[in-house]
Specification:
Elements: E1 6-11, H1 15-25, E2 31-37, H2 40-49, E3 54-57, H3 66-76, E4 81-86, H4 91-100, E5 104-107, H5 112-123, E6 128-129, H6 131-151, H7 156-166, H8 171-178, H9 182-196, H10 201-210
Helix pairs in contact: 3-4, 4-6, 7-10, 8-9, 9-10
């Protein structure tokens, strides 16, 4: 059985990597390269003319972070699928991007057969994660599910304070903005850390992002 034709575009600012991917993927008759881009700007311009089935997207483009670009592209081109191709082995980054709708997260040091497997799986509508990240990503997803129980316990005021903390306002600035005393705001901080199971402010904000309480 002849595989379905799959159109691929590549967005990465390293010419050697782009050209290497093009050379490798072009050896497979069922894969067609529609374009290669070195920046977010050129990616947006190229995709406006022609959208591939799958975009291989680096996270570290010079003019825009891939974590910001991916959700924008998926919203603009809902039928296009994205595989993140990156050196970033953070399970947290993978989880966030998967939550944003990307279908694949593959490390650049992966073997060639894993890239082909990722393309095949994503084209068929499945999620693909680098094997070395799978356990950590799934463990994080389970933890997020458990944490949703504590998120339900947050009051509207606590969520409001959490969002202001994420906006980098000091306790005094939050107090002034909400008409509260400084001590009350500090109490909210402590309660939020306890409810979200965070050890510090950074962890608290991360939990808020993962739970969808902070955009």
């Amino acid at each position: 059985m002849v595989p379905d034709k799959i159109s691929i575009a590549i967005a990465d600012d390293h010419p050697l990597l782009r050209h290497g991917l093009i050379s490798m993927l072009s050896l497979h008759e069922h894969i067609h390269i529609t374009g290669d881009y070195s920046s977010a700007e050129s990616t947006l311009a190229g995709l406006a003319l022609k959208q591939p089935d799958i975009l291989l997207l680096d996270l570290s483009l010079p003019d825009m972070n891939g974590e910001d670009l991916a959700p924008h592209l998926l919203k603009k081109y809902p039928t296009m699928k994205i595989i993140i191709l990156t050196s970033n082995n953070s399970a947290y980054s993978a989880r966030i991007l998967l939550d944003h709708g990307v279908q694949g997260y593959l490390l650049k040091n992966s073997e060639q057969h894993l890239l082909l497997e990722a393309i095949k799986n994503v084209h068929q509508g499945c999620i693909f994660i680098s094997p070395e990240l799978q356990e950590r990503v799934f463990k994080m997803a389970k933890q997020i599910k458990n944490d949703l129980i504590s998120a339900d316990n947050l009051t509207n005021r606590e969520i409001q304070v959490l969002r202001l903390i994420a906006d980098e306002l000091t306790s005094q600035q939050i107090a002034d903005k909400l008409g509260l005393s400084l001590r009350t705001v500090e109490n909210y901080r402590m309660v939020l850390m306890q409810k979200l199971g965070a050890k510090n402010m950074i962890g608290m904000v991360k939990k808020g992002i993962m739970l969808g309480l902070i955009e």
